[in-house]
Every structure is written in C-alpha cells, then in structure tokens.
Amino acid sequence: MQYRLNKDYLLNVLRSWDGFLKKRVQLIACGGTAMTLLGVKDSTADIDLLIPEDRQYLYLISILEDIGYKKIHSTRWAGKDMFVFDLYPGKTIFQTELLESPLKKGNSTVLHEFKYISLGVLNCYDLIISKIFRCSSVDMEDCLILIKNRKNDIYFKKLKDRYYETSSYSVSDEQNKRNFELFQKYLKKKEVNI
After folding, report:
1. Which residues pair with 92 in a beta bridge?
2. What would the 3-class secondary structure string for 23-49 be?
3. What are the structural domain ranges in the chain?
4. What value does the mean pLDDT of the chain take?
5. What is the sign, positive or negative, of the torsion defined by CA atoms of 43, 149, 118, 53?
6. Which of 31, 89, 98, 123 lies in disulfide reach of 57, CB 3.0 to 4.6 Å?
C-alpha cells in the first residue's frame, strides 16, 4: 500500500523543519507537491522541492542530516517516516534545467511564510514542462489536471515556445520534442483545447 501526502501533512513537515533552522531558506515546490499545495491534486506520493540558492541548499541538507534524514539517491532523502523528499539544488528539476531561476519574478508564487522557510510554488508553465520532459502516464495526467484547473492562466503558444526553448538546452532535445508531440496528441484525445 502506497501512502500519500496531503497539503496539511506537507505544511506540517516544513513547519517541523523550520523549527530547526536558524537561517532563511527559500523552497519552491514542484511536481506533484506543487499541484497538491495549489489544491489541484488531493495528495502526492513524495515531496519535490527546489532550493534555488546553493548556500541555502547546503545549509538545509546539513540540518536535515543532523535531525536524522539519510540520502538515499543523488537528490532523494528519507526521514524516519516512509516518505521520500526530492531536494533539487539550483534550477534543475529531475533532468529538466529551467530557463531561469524560480526566484525570478513570475517564475514562482510565495504560498506560505514560516519563520525561516519561504515556501513558493513553481509557475504552471515550468511545472508542465518538467512533467512533459519525463512523459510518464502519471505526468501526462497531472498536466491534464493542471490545465483543466488553471485553463485561464495557461496560453498554449507561450507553453509551446517556452517548452521548445527549454528543450533546446537539453541533451535530450529530440526526445523532448517527441514528448511534446505525444502531449499534444494526449490533449487532443482528451478533447482539451488551450
């Protein structure tokens, strides 16, 4: 049985982290975490966070290690509970390098301020792009849900242009282009127009 994390649980985890911090850390939710925090999905299987500033990333990692978190993969961390945290330094999610820092105006929205943690959510365009790069069935479904939920905030031409520009910097450019074509077919099949 796979356990899922809801918005309240996510905020409680970050509140507990905040209690151990003595310096400011800016976190940007991405993936299913962003969608859960935005209320687009009820829950997520793991926690995906970007830490755009290198010094803040190193500081947070040191605190997490001090309180018992273990690194189980290059970006994956696990605590004493069963949940996994993917912590991404800089502006790269999974294998998707974003065009700009998520801290640049318009690239994320602050959702919650704790004493030391500022929690933001990645913009819809970069959120969709990072999911299409992976192109799993879950990612396609997540994109569909996000588009249906935020239809008035997403412009297809802007998404396509930003997607192809982001892809042009990737070593997997041709695969990414095929993924976008699959995504367009998926939207058409689901009768979604943006």
Report:
1. 97
2. CCEEEEECHHHHHHHCCCCCEECCEEE
3. 5-122, 126-189
4. 93
5. positive
6. 89
| In contact, 92 and 54? CB cutoff 8 Å | no
Q: Which of 22, 96, 33, 31 is nearest to 60 (CA)?
A: 22
Q: Are 28 and 121 in contact (CB under 8 A)?
A: yes
| Class of CATH domain 5-122 | alpha beta
In this structure, are strands 70-71 and 76-78 parallel, antiparallel, or unpaired? antiparallel
| pTM, two decimal places | 0.93
DSSP 171: T
For residues 107-116, give the mean pLDDT: 97
Q: Quick check: helix, strand or coil at residue 89?
A: strand
Q: pLDDT band for position 83 (50/70/90)?
A: confident
The per-residue pLDDT for 46 is 84
